[in-house]
Amino acid sequence: MFMLGLPFIASLATFGLAGLGIVLVEALGLHQRESVSWIQAFWTSVWANLFSTFMGLIFTFMYAASGFLILLIINVVLLSWFLSRLLLRVLAELRGNVQLLLLQALTYLISFIVSLAIFITGGILNFGIGIKTRMLIEPGSFTLNVYVTAVLGLLALNFLLTWILESYWLTGKWKEKSPAKLCRTVFWINVRSYVYILLPIVILGGILQRKL
């Protein structure tokens, strides 16, 4: 369920309608904020979401098998690489020169710490609160309060991962545009898709789970 599992599960549960809705909402945001044609915004949204979903599935698979420490390390290193490249693109725009070894080393260190924190927090939410065990093994003890607490935390992590991955992809595709502005754009279009689509679906799922 961790990583990009929530958007993916929401899409499966609605027979793809949630995924299509996310693409359309984010395409509208790209069209409005970046002054690109609707067609360009639509296909950019499609590819950005495919990229983040594909990487999310890789993260999820290796996270599920993280009993092998090496896979957890690979996950952290991989996410660190995406985040560090994104930060360096933004810094290059702001400073004009990011060739300083100390600056690059600091960027990689910050990216590694953030990535490690994401995976540790995800583990606490998944297993510490017991969301996976209660859903699959003890559904009778699965209270709505536990569901809301865990899922809101997981949604926040999913949002952060989506923001990093889609910002990385978009800043690499639209190199002529400001990386910092593109990061802000990706942030706000994902706020819309989460608030309008994912959050209502997840909350409704919790209510139905509680009723059942």
TrEMBL record:
Key words of the record: Membrane, Transmembrane, Transmembrane helix
Spans through the membrane: 37-61, 68-88, 108-130, 142-165, 185-208
Name of the protein described by the UniProt record: Uncharacterized protein
